[in-house]
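Sequence in, structure out.
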Amino acid sequence: MRLAARHRGSWLDLEDCGLVEVDRVAGRFGSIETVRMGRGEPIVLLPGLAGGWRLMAPLARLLARRHEVVLVGLRGDRELAGTPTRQTPADHALDVAGLIGRLRLENPAVIGASFGGAVALELATRFPGCVGSLTILGAEATFRPSLGSAILLSALERIPLPRTSPFLNQFFNVLHGCRPEPGPLVEFLVNRCWDTDQGVIAKRLRGLESFDVSERLWEIDAPTLVLAGTKDVVVSTSRQKALASQVPGAAFQAVEGAGHVGFLTHRAEVATHVVRFLRSRVASAC
């Protein structure tokens, strides 16, 4: 599926507009794509299971009005399934910690969505000196496999799925939390998610099976905000609220009507909550 020409004005990839340049920063396990935009206190934005930094770009545009935003690609985002790389949240947290050091970012705000939220939680518990504040969207302290995730993983590992696969594209629709209206946003989500090879997505799902920071949440000393979509069917609002209750001093905010990809569909509300949270953090430090 390709984005219709009449919709490309607002959903065009940022590098296609000539607005930013994509850099590749050397990491322990290979190079990682990064994009920097805006000015101000830095924000490191970590993407989810599929789609890479490009799926987070619409939110980054809004945050970059007040902050320098560093969009971070995850190892494997643009690689083939045969690439022998590990894909656990802990592995990616190690990559991000090294990246923050190489870019000389001092106590950046870290925002992680979905799989990126798991990476952010690993980063905050393993490398607390790298995190000035933490915002988590669509994640919880441990991975809870479901029938849906098991079926998805089995299909990804065993069946070569074409980009027009009704099965996987239907799963992408579930991420909205309701049946979405056809249009540019839906096309954008599907196209960006297919940028990530299905074998890499499968490895990340496998990597999530070992994810559990529930016994380490008390170690997080960075100001923390948990943003939860009220229609998230992947990680329920109640489970995300439970995460906030387990992190010392964490704040919780529901995003009305948002599903698992609320960072995209409700990006204006998410950006408002993030900016307000970061302002309150600065105010409390004065």
